[in-house]
Amino acid sequence: MITSLDKSIGMSINYVNKKIQRYLSINLEKYDITTEQWAVLLKLVEKEGINQKLLSKEVEKDQATLTRILDILERKSLIIRKKSPEDRRAFLIYTTDKGKEVKEEVYPFIEKLFKNMICGIPKDELDLFVGVLSKINENMCTEEQKIKQCNKK
């Protein structure tokens, strides 16, 4: 049975996420990059030379969606793909100097956004909130695995 608290938690998370996405989208326009492209670019700066399969897991995007995003980032000269020396079928992905420059330009704005977002919230409340979100995420991962197991049968 779904209680109003269950509904409000899901709706609140969704509502805040949409607000953040909208705010990011509006502000990222001047950099000619979308929120999805930004998330992938940021992960690539952190994990230079990662292969596409691992990157897909890291950014939680399916292969087709990630390929589309990488194609766009490559057209914008923000990344390059190089064949893997160990596996000729795989590509390793690197950020270009231009990609690193975009990250350096955008990152302070993102930091400021998140700093403003948590302004006035005591650290202990933030820690509790992050812990609760983490537990909700774990629970959802468990449920997702159950569904995948059922679908295999």
Automatic annotation (TrEMBL):
Gene Ontology terms, MF aspect: DNA binding; DNA-binding transcription factor activity
Keyword ATP-binding found: no
Superkingdom classification of source: Bacteria
Entry-linked Pfam families: MarR
PROSITE patterns xrefs: HTH_MARR_1 (PS01117), HTH_MARR_2 (PS50995)
Keywords, in A-Z order: DNA-binding, Transcription, Transcription regulation
Xref: InterPro entries: HTH_MarR-typ, Tscrpt_reg_MarR-type_CS, WH-like_DNA-bd_sf, WH_DNA-bd_sf
Residues in HTH marR-type domain copies: 1-138
Protein name, UniProt field: Transcriptional regulator, MarR family
Upper taxonomic lineage: Bacteria, Bacillati, Bacillota, Clostridia, Eubacteriales
